[in-house]
Amino acid sequence: MKTAYLISTGTELLLGLTLDTNSIFISERLEKLGVKVIGKSIVGDNKENLIKAFKLGLESADVVITTGGLGPTKDDLTKEIACEVLGIQSVLNKKVEDNLQNFFAKRNRDMPKSNIKQAMFPKDAIILKNSIGTAPGMYIDKGNKKTILLPGPPNEMRKMYEDEVEPLLIRELNLEEKKIATKVIKVIGPGESQIEEMIAEVMNNPNGCSIVLLAHEGEVHIRVTADRKDFKESQENLDIVVNNIIEKTSNYIYGYDEETLPSNIVKLLDKKGKTIAFAESCTGGLISKLITDVPGSSSVFWGTIVSYSNKSKIGLLDVKENTINKNGAVSEETAYEMAKGALKVSDADIGVAVTGIAGPDGGTEQKPVGEVYIAIAFNNYCTVKKLRFVGDRDAIRMLTAKSALDLIRKKIK
Amino acid sequence: MKTAYLISTGTELLLGLTLDTNSIFISERLEKLGVKVIGKSIVGDNKENLIKAFKLGLESADVVITTGGLGPTKDDLTKEIACEVLGIQSVLNKKVEDNLQNFFAKRNRDMPKSNIKQAMFPKDAIILKNSIGTAPGMYIDKGNKKTILLPGPPNEMRKMYEDEVEPLLIRELNLEEKKIATKVIKVIGPGESQIEEMIAEVMNNPNGCSIVLLAHEGEVHIRVTADRKDFKESQENLDIVVNNIIEKTSNYIYGYDEETLPSNIVKLLDKKGKTIAFAESCTGGLISKLITDVPGSSSVFWGTIVSYSNKSKIGLLDVKENTINKNGAVSEETAYEMAKGALKVSDADIGVAVTGIAGPDGGTEQKPVGEVYIAIAFNNYCTVKKLRFVGDRDAIRMLTAKSALDLIRKKIK
């Protein structure tokens, strides 16, 4: 099995200004290719530490992949250090220089002089195109050690990985035919330890598969991986285990692998030819944001009233002032009227409303922070569910949004 | 200067299922305390690798802080391994066991048997309260080596860090009086290399301060740090450099340190006693979500119409059908009428509308993906700005939202 060592550079990754999402993305993709990530190092924009990490990576793995440090600023050192560690000269690439000039011309901006640095490359390196930003990547093949340098901005790095790096790795590392089979089962409702109890039998006898549970924003993802002598055998082993898990958890499964709860809802609505409108209070637009993260959601999503104030609940959703005065803005009755209102002001088939107390303020003994009402209306039907979540503002808002989507999923089914 | 070594555990961190936000948060907080993070290791739920990381950490730093692996499942190994490496016995804590029983009782759930593991602790460890989840943390003091074990879920870890760990570190590490002074200047508009050119003079002569630029979702954060013989001298050095940078970039600065663009807008509106309503098309609720991330935003935020479909633009915002037919839903004219509509249907003082093409589909040669219109209306005034962004769907939506907020900021000022 081929191995990889990942290096993420940038002082900001040690100071805590930003997340290292890059090595995570690359780990996931490499695993699918059957390349094992044996180590991960995070270093600042510091020459000495970067050299150490480079040497360690080159000593221990077949391929070293770095992200970051390819930009035009003084802190961007990765290319220079790769040349130094590998003993390769740096040369100007005229074509890349022209592309850089074009990039800035298209945006009606002059190219800052410092950007010329981005057209310098290790001699004989293969240049990897950056279709989003200004910093190209590169691939350096020296003996049996391969080095790949990628830009730091996640969207640039991802596009480059998908378009350029993956085909290159398959070719250059002579990756054998795909051997590993993987499936992620996505569950919503029960917690991690409850899921572990449900599938304890399978986990105790996993048929040679690895089973990993991950709790994330109210969901639990069950990742099953089989690594046998060939893909067919891996797939067969995987299927047995996956089917066993599905049997035990089927009530809570919303999807598999790349599927997300919002993408699943959009697909379901599209299949049934139904449209949806929301009335969001405590989630403040988050449900709509999640739905419209899905390209093509416009075919099923009419729109939303983010009725954060009582005035907007009354003015736009026809919630009766008396209902709010009597029961409060966070109540079964208000949620009911909000959902009915969403249906009324729109021509959507389904109206969904949420109202709750996201905190940190606004809770009382009767209605504590975390109390949430979700209403779903269609035709003459309307149902309201009361839920209570524990956590901070962000967590309560996300759990509310996810629960609303899950309720919709169950109702559509 | 005291040093720390961070270990993040969890196979999911190597497989790419989740982000290691924990070590980032801790790095940032430690830096503020004047504790230097000298290394970071990410390991799977693998006994052997975890032991190696532990030993390395204990050898090289004054304090080792781990996150994750304190839960009830079989994969949760951190506590057991800490006992093994440090040569300490594990004992049952009755009080923690009772707390666990209460946690589940409050949620009307039986405690899974496996959770009892969470009440076992290294002998003489100080237990750190988890006010959100079930896994307490702990502090182990052995000779001159300190070990702190924290739970993996970020919201639990953060609360525990703030409430328990920080005071403990200050006390137990005998941290000298604060020496380091730091300021983050937050800028929106120009790119990283443009900012570097603007402040090139300061960067070439930084008065002994360190200056780090970070580009993040359309913003650039300029972090300046001074580390001199005492806090007063650090602060004096910092002030000179910060003032120089402010002078060069003042047109683009929206805030400092913990301030975010949305929190700044909420504060500005509150100060002026103005309320705001949005009409969002391509951003699909994202602007509202960002505004309502800010606790207390209800005092200035009337609500939003997420008018994702033409029907909702016409039906709720009174955009003329003819305007859309003639100019398209993504046009100056439609944005104008949406903002006017937001003002009309609400009783807010300011109406803001965005419409654009977020992609990946829907672009044409005349109106490519990334073309966006932002309109701001108040009283009888309405202005529309046309922008063009490059990037994927997520990036275009976020840049649009940020630009809208920045325009609002400029108008309010």
From TrEMBL, chains A, B:
MoaB/Mog domain mapped to chain residues: 5-172
Name the UniProt record assigns to this protein: Putative competence-damage inducible protein
InterPro entries reported in the protein's UniProt record: CinA, CinA-like_C, CinA_C, CinA_KH, Competence-induced_CinA, MoaB/Mog-like_dom_sf, MoaB/Mog_dom
Keywords: Hydrolase
Entry keyword annotation includes Hydrolase: yes
Protein family per UniProt: Belongs to the CinA family.
Keyword Hydrolase among record annotations: yes
Domain of life: Bacteria
GO molecular function: hydrolase activity
